[in-house]
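idk why but the lab printer keeps eating my pages so im just putting this in chat instead. protein + zinc ion:
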Amino acid sequence: MSEDCIFCAIVDGEIPGRIVYEDDGVLAFLDANPLAEGHTLVIPKEHYERLDDVPSDVASDLYAAIHEIVPAAEDAVGAPASTVAFNNGEAAGQEVPHVHCHIVPRTEGDGGGP
Ligand code: 5GP
Ligand code: ZN
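predcted complex ->
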């Protein structure tokens, strides 16, 4: 838990999140400002700022969850594909300093994505 971290506050239930997946170490919820319907964020419950701060066992759990959530997010909105991305560091557009994976369902020619 990091003070003043909005995603830690969602993990702790202090602010609401539209949760779509949860296991012991990972939480996924819908993005508040979606780039497309079904835009989902997947986070480790523990606070790490950058992808390269995440220990390999946590990274492995995170990837296992992503592996399940990607097809579920696509199916939920009838999308045939998705963009799956991390903004790693402020200069790359990371606004929330709690590592998170974006899953953005995509359709042909939608012009979207992170
Ligand atoms: P970043 O730019 O850090 O890669 O992405 C942060 C994402 O978090 C953005 O897509 C933004 O819409 C989303 N976001 C920011 N604050 C909240 C929040 O309080 N709740 C949820 N569900 N998403 C948020
Ligand atoms: Zn946090």
